[in-house]
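Sequence, please.
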């Protein structure tokens, strides 16, 4: 398959104004009759182009233009297209196609799950439902009529409003839906299923009445309440913060257990992975609740940022995803703790996006080319894309940013546009020059920022020299660098740059626009410690040139909570990486007293903000540490990190035991920030105690496992036990499975806890899990809980004997025959293979080559493996 290039974009030759679908569901077959109002695009380059429709996995029954059936010579059909050489200027195209949704294991297009039939069309699934010009700049009005058996498919749903319904012969029924808004085909959705329904009314800020519905698997209505609650909160938030209201009479969410993504923002009919809908205190953790809240909000927010204004082409994916992630991040920050939300977002960015940007799949947030667009639903497009929006927000300020959003909607409502259209609206509304900021859209890689401060006591001046590099030449980026100066007493010094009339504020956003720049602060009465990149104001790797003593000072005093956390992370990273070198040289690992004492201060003041304290107690992830080494050594990283944790645990054992008792949450379960924060600190304490892993710690953890009444505490204990070789491990795992074997999302947790265990025999365990009766390679959540989870482990996937690589390679090939999108994600585990030693590299190369030589490899996996080897 050939790469598609951004620079080759041309407008479509034809437009499709309306789509009328008639969908007939029978045993093992769906028949789709389409009526398309087609006309030549006045903006097309060439007025004589043939009509080329996309279509895959379809059996074409008939095709007609303006009511006249086409003869075989008048069109051609291949695996991907239907071509009609001679097409009039405007006409009605009718086609009839058939396929079997029950045989569709790819889960794109129209497919079967346990309770019925569902769709997934983004990015290019609509072409698996009918022949179409399947690209987002073709926007149409849709009418859909569904026919199916009443007993098996009581709910027949599609986008928009239900306008008619009725009965048919043979215990069948039908329903007709009309979506008043023109939309691209990727936002099409329909459902024919047996589901339970939770519904509530909603009155929008301007007084419009709407019906909100959440459809779930029969019997699970008691797990739908939080999603409904989250939806209403998100709707209110978007009204208050962005002035955006629901534009439909009815907003539906349908949860399905077999789903490739997290969720999908189809117009008026969101379809969700059950993972992001179903929750009950005893089945879902605080983190699950947080995820549901965020994803429900995210998909709802797409109704404006994505649906009302959509993407011109798939290179612009970050236009809707980066912006909508930014919106869901701000929503979460408002609903929970802003500092903790930011820390978690940055931790994920570093664990997933930074490695992506340093590996074979590196691409700009607006990619220049792709082979398979499904491979570009990435951390870069989403999370780095959100960071780019955040930088615009930081540069403009809240009010001008809001004006920019208003202008964006005013100009582009109902259109399919580009990232440039967005930044232009932001620039025009604010008057802020965004030329340097725009470069972020076209550059891959993580920029490095170096900062060095010099204090001149005589002049009472502090000069900061800041440089940036991305190592590819080109003009420098515009990087907003938020800084503060922390005095020796721990108090922020008011900031006055040379040339300012007076000091103002204690945090200042410096505009770094050159390769190197100097900033001179005056009236600095004592040598400060610079607090750089406050709030992580840009997605860069910072070398701040600070000493351990400076960092300990910031860790204790910085008024910016993000940088207080960050100082602790940098210190812990230094200690662990020095420990790696010591271990390799056969020397003891050193843990500086100053660091341990700073950790003690976190514990001592934990009650001020337990959730934040828990974040500060979490040591950097092994994947993040591996990125900082020239040649990653996963075993040494694991061992050094383990030793640091154990040393802290032994030093503060009594305090951790105290915190574990003290932060108990009483009363009925609630996933709110306060209660969840207390549980988070309590379970972090348990994690430290289990780093000691003696019989006392194991007994405490097992007792906790049996006592726990909510899934947060249950899983915290179970995960500790799963990493421990004590007899409690198998007892707890056995009890857990017995209790939860009928609750799929909870069984996923059971699989995942075993697949990610630190214990030596984890790969053997994973292999035996594949033979477990509850394992099913066709279910994406289950595959992810075992295979993707295992492939994400630092130690076992990267085992020096290459067994981890060989195993995952075999599973990529097996999965590819079922579901290329899920297989391709698994293959991404190999991204960083060149960061390891020669022995591991040889094994990884062998594994990658074995995938590449597999017969019938999908273009999804082919692109990932080809880039890794290339
Ligand atoms: N459903 C995915 C998301 O919301 C793709 N649009 O991000
Ligand atoms: Zn999205």
């Amino acid at each position: 398959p050939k790469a598609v290039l951004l620079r080759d974009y041309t407008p479509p030759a034809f437009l499709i104004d309306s789509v009328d679908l008639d969908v007939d569901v029978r045993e093992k077959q769906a028949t789709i009759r389409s009526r398309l109002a087609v006309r030549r695009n006045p903006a097309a380059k060439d007025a004589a182009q043939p009509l080329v429709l996309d279509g895959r996995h379809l059996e074409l029954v008939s095709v007609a233009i303006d009511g006249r059936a086409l003869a075989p010579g008048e069109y051609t059909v291949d695996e991907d297209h239907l071509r009609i050489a001679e097409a009039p200027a405007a006409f009605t195209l009718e086609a009839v196609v058939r396929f079997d949704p029950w045989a569709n294991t790819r889960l794109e297009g129209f497919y079967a799950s346990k309770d019925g039939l569902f769709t997934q069309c983004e990015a290019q699934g609509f072409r698996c439902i009918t022949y179409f010009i399947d690209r987002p700049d073709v926007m149409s009005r849709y009418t859909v009529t569904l026919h199916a058996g009443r007993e098996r498919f009581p709910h027949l749903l599609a986008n928009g409003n239900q306008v008619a319904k009725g009965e048919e012969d043979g215990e069948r029924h039908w329903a007709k839906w009309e979506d008043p808004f023109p939309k691209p085909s990727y936002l099409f959705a329909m459902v024919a299923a047996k589901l339970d329904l939770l519904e509530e009314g909603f009155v929008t800020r301007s007084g419009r009445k709407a019906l909100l519905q959440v459809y779930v698997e029969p019997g699970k209505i008691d797990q739908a309440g939080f999603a409904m609650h989250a939806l209403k909160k998100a709707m209110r938030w978007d009204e208050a913060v962005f002035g955006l209201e629901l534009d439909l009479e009815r907003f539906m969410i349908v949860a399905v257990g077999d789903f490739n993504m997290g969720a999908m923002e189809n117009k008026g009919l969101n379809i969700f992975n059950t993972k992001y809908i179903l929750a009950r205190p005893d089945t879902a953790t605080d983190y699950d609740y947080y995820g549901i809240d965020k994803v429900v909000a995210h998909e709802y927010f797409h109704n404006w940022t994505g649906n009302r204004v959509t993407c011109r082409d798939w290179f612009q994916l970050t236009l809707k995803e980066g912006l909508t992630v930014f919106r869901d991040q701000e929503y979460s920050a408002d609903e929970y703790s802003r500092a903790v939300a930011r820390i978690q977002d940055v931790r994920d960015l570093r664990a997933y996006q930074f490695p992506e940007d340093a590996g074979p799949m590196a691409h700009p947030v607006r990619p220049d080319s792709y082979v398979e667009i499904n491979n570009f639903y990435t951390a870069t497009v989403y999370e780095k894309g959100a960071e780019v929006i955040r930088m615009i927000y930081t540069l403009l300020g809240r009010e001008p940013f809001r004006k920019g959003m208003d202008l964006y909607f005013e100009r582009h409502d109902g259109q399919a546009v580009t990232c440039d259209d967005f930044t232009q609206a932001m620039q025009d509304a604010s008057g802020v020059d965004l030329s340097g900021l725009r470069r972020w859209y076209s550059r891959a890689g993580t920029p490095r920022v170096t900062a060095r401060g010099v204090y001149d006591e005589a002049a009472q001046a502090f000069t900061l020299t800041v440089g940036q590099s991305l190592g590819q030449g080109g003009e420098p980026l515009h990087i907003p660098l938020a800084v503060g100066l922390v005095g020796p007493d721990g108090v922020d010094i008011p900031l006055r740059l040379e040339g300012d009339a007076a000091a103002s504020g204690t945090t200042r956003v410096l505009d770094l626009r050159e390769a190197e720049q100097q900033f001179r602060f005056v009236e600095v009465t004592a040598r400060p410690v610079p607090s750089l990149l406050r709030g992580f104001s840009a997605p860069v790797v910072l070398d701040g040139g600070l000493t351990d003593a400076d960092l300990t000072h910031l860790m204790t005093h910085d008024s910016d909570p993000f940088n207080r956390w960050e100082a602790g992370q940098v210190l812990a990273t230094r200690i662990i990486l020095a420990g790696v070198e010591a271990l390799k040289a056969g020397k003891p690992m050193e843990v500086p007293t100053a660091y341990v004492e700073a950790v003690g201060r976190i514990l001592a003041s934990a009650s001020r903000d337990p959730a934040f304290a828990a974040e500060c107690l979490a040591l950097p992830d092994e994947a993040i540490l591996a990125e900082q080494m020239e040649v990653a050594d996963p075993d040494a990283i694991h061992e050094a990190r383990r030793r640091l944790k154990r040393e802290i645990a032994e030093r503060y054992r009594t305090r951790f035991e105290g915190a574990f008792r003290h932060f108990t949450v009483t009363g009925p379960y609630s996933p709110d920030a306060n209660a969840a924060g207390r549980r988070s600190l309590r379970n972090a304490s348990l994690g430290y105690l289990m780093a000691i892993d003696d019989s006392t710690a194991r007994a405490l953890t097992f007792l906790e496992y049996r006592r726990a009444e909510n899934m947060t505490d249950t899983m915290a204990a179970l995960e500790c036990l799963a990493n421990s070789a004590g007899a409690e491990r198998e007892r707890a795992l056995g009890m857990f499975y017995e209790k939860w074997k009928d609750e799929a999302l909870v069984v996923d947790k059971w699989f995942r806890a075993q697949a990610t265990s630190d214990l030596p025999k984890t790969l053997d365990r994973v292999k035996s899990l594949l033979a477990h009766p509850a394992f099913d390679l066709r279910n994406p959540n289950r595959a992810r809980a075992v295979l993707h989870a295992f492939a994400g482990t630092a130690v076992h996937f990267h085992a020096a004997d290459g067994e981890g690589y060989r195993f995952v390679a075999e599973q990529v090939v097996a999965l590819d025959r079922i579901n290329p999108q899920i297989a391709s994600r698994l293959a991404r585990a190999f991204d960083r293979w060149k960061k390891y030693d020669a022995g591991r590299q040889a094994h990884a190369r062998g594994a990658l080559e074995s995938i590449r030589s597999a017969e019938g490899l999908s273009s999804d996996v082919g692109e990932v493996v080809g880039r890794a080897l290339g």
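The pocket of zinc ion (ligand 2) is lined by residues 298, 302, 321, 324 (CB under 6 Å).
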